[in-house]
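Below is how a single chain appears once it has passed through the pipeline. First comes the sequence as given, then the structure the pipeline wrote out for it. We keep one example in the README because the format questions we get most often are answered faster by looking than by reading.
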Amino acid sequence: MTQSLRTSPITHWRLWSVYVLMLLGTVAAFFLIRHFGEGLGAVSGTAETVGTATSVSVAHRSDALLHILLALVAMIAAGRLLGLGFRYFGQPPVIGEVIAGILLGPSLLGRIAPEFAAYLLPQSVAPSLGIIAQLGVILYMFVVGLELDSGALHSRGHSTIAISHASIVTPFILGSLLALFLYPRFAESHVSFTVFALFLGAAMSVTAFPVLARILTDRGISRTPLGIVALTCAATDDVTAWCLLAFVVGVAQSQVSMSLFVLLWTCLFIAVMLLLVKPLLQRWVKSLGDQPMSPGVMAMVFTALLGSALITEAIGIHAIFGGFILGAIFPHDSRLARDLRHKLEDTVTVLLLPAFFAFTGMRTQIGLVSGLENWAWCGLIIAVATLGKFGGTLVAARLTGLGWRESSSLGILMNTRGLMELIALNIGLDLKIISPTVFAMLVIMAVVTTIATTPILQLIDRGKPLPAV
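Resulting structure:
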């Protein structure tokens, strides 16, 4: 892959024209889909429940702690074991951890040994486990933000941005179209079609930047032209998709008329973070120089992190966005950023994220996807998600001058979802935008698309190594 991503002034304006038309077309297409979808009727009755308890009495706190510790031990052990197994077959270990959470939940253990499953993960500990899981996800999204190289977003050219946004727009529109068929069959009556379609489109658009980076590193192509373009596109995808999801959450948590205020506060928060906090943060980090991080400095970082998460939670767009944005504005190559990643990454991924996988496993009931019809809809979701990501990326990459092999490989890589998708899906389930049945289908989609990345990439590459930069 030797094609340059630099563009001439004429090509530059042509790309911008196509880009603006793509965005306007996306908005117009969604409003057309919304016009037809708002007349659809959703499933009547109350929302499906997954049996999650909402409170834990003081008398059972010690018992809850015992079960939480037991659940974490089981999740860490099972996740590590399955992760090693999946690594042996060339898969990212996180897939093993995700599947471990599902297996320890009602999908498998709850079916073959219900009494043991009820003792290992009783529903009464779900609220406490959920809080630990949310804290782990906030810290994880902060680490993801720290790993983003914002300078690369500017240095790789407008063509890379166009590829990234095409890989978001296409699955978003296809997901919204799919909502026309899923809404009357699986949505609850209290959820409007607009919110359901927006969330389904956003869920189809997510790319797992950390998992993709791990796949590229394991294959030794992270420094090839393909690897650099893929990482840059995935980083741009992360920023755009999470902003889109933040808007969806704002619409879902407010009346439609109030969603504009949520959007306004969100834009104001982002503007303050970029225009005020980021320069101050850069000066502070520069003043620290190359000295090791002290406990006082770490305390200030955690105060800022929790404060940022608190603000976004108060705005109505979920606390994880605050953690992600603060991490994204950190100086990427500073000693402080490297120290934070070094100190947090292992603790978060080994200790706290298993709580999130266990919590997700408790809420995932594969048994809800029963019967040939439901599995057909699940297969259609996987097909639409794959077609949107792969097709949008492939066409955009070809239009910017990349070859068929490189464009196909890039499309497969951008179809990686993994943990980022699970975070988004849990938000949708928390807000009751999607039912447990749709949640289970989308979890299956996230696992399948991530597992499929490595073998299909190997098939495309056919063992031919790509040249290093």
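The chain has a mean pLDDT of 81.

See the next section for the split statistics.
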